[in-house]
Amino acid sequence: MQTSDIVFDAPVAVAAVDSRTYAIDRAVEPVRWVFRWGSLAMLIAMVSLPFIQVVSREIFAMPIIGVEELARFMLICSVFLALPYVVSAGANIRMEEIVAMFPAGVVRVAKVMGAVTATATFAAIAVASFVAIGGNLDNSTPTLGIPYWVFLGAAFVSFTMTTLECGIQTVKVIQGKPLYITFPQEHEPEEELDLPDEMKG
Fold this sequence. Notes:
Layout: E1 17-18, H1 23-58, H2 67-89, H3 96-99, H4 104-135, H5 148-175, E2 181-182
Parallel strand pairs: 1-2
Helix pairs in contact: 1-2, 2-5, 4-5
C-alpha cells in the first residue's frame, strides 16, 4: 500500500497584527479611535436610558418623555459606529475552517474578489445614504423631533468609514499582508498575573 506524495497547499490562518504595524493603519488609527469610543459611548447611553426611565417612572412617578425613542436612536448609532471596527478587526463571520481546505492560490483570489466587492458594496450604500439625507431634510421623529438626517448621517459616516476599511484590506491582500488588526488595548498583559498557586497551570 503506497502513501500519497501529494501535499495540499492549505493556507494557515493569519493572526491579526497590531494597528501600529503598517503606515496605512497608523494614519487611520485616530479615526478608528473615534469610532470605537463613540460606539462605546452610544452603547452605554442605550443601556442607561431604559434604566433611568424605569427608576424615574417606578420610584419618582415621573416618566421622562421620549426616552424610548432616544434609546432606539442610540441603538442605531452604536451599530453603525461599531461596523468599521468589526470589519477592521475581522470580527465578522469568515468561515476560516472551510477556507483553510482550499489551495492558497484560490484563497488569495477569493480574498481579492471579496475585498473589492465589499469596497464597492459599502461605497454604493454610502452614496445611497447621502442621497437619502437630501430627501429627508424636513422629516423628523414624532416625539423628540430628531431629524431623520441625523440617523442617515450616522449611516453615511459609518458606511464611508467601512468603505475605507475595505479599501485598506484590498491593498493589504494584494500586498500579501495580514488583513486584520488589533488595538494595543486588546493585547494580553506582558507581565504574568499574580495568581494563587491553585489557579496556575
